[in-house]
Amino acid sequence: MAKGKTTFDEAKCKGCGLCVAFCPTKILVLDPKRMNQHGYQLITITDPDKCIGCAFCAIMCPDSVITVERIDHE
Ligand code: SF4
Ligand code: SF4
């Protein structure tokens, strides 16, 4: 099963929540306790082990905040 590792360029995030809405495994949440220097809420990954590396989050993000590294297991 493929897995993924996501990296967020947090300074560029605008807290729009599109990545949260489109993640099929529902592991992304807007975290009210964290914000960037522009005052936007940041994303927290609730369960990184469940990321399947689909990159829907990165494709949907209008500000190119997210990089997804796909890790394929035999
Ligand atoms: S790569 Fe896919 S599973 Fe992983 S966080 Fe992004 S949308 Fe969710
Ligand atoms: S889609 Fe991009 S800008 Fe919007 S909340 Fe997610 S990471 Fe931030």
Report on this structure.
The model has no long low-confidence stretch (mean pLDDT 95). Strand 2 and strand 3 form a beta hairpin. The protein has helices at residues 18-22, 56-60, and strands at 3-8, 28-35, 41-45, 66-71. A two-stranded antiparallel ribbon has the order 1-4. It has a two-stranded antiparallel sheet with strand order 2-3. It has 74 residues and is α+β, with helices and mostly antiparallel strands. It binds iron/sulfur cluster (2 copies). Residues 4, 6, 23-25, 27-28, 51-57, 68 line the site of one iron/sulfur cluster (SF4).
Summarize the structure.
The chain is 14% helix and 34% strand.
CATH topology: Alpha-Beta Plaits
CATH class: Alpha Beta
What gyration radius follows from the Cα positions, in whole Å? 12 Å
What is the residue-averaged pLDDT? Answer: 95
The portion of residues assigned to helices is: 10-25%
Largest sheet data: 2 strands, antiparallel
Sketch the topology as an H/E string, one letter per element.
EHEEHE
Q: What coarse outline follows from CA principal-axis ratios? A: globular
> Which molecules other than protein and nucleic acid are bound?
iron/sulfur cluster
- Which CATH architecture would you pick? 2-Layer Sandwich
Number of domains: 1
The end-to-end span amounts to 8 Å
Query: Helical region count?
Result: 2
Number of strands: 4
Comma- or semicolon-separated keywords:
globular, 74 residues, 2 helices, two-stranded antiparallel sheet, Alpha-Beta Plaits, alpha+beta, binds iron/sulfur cluster
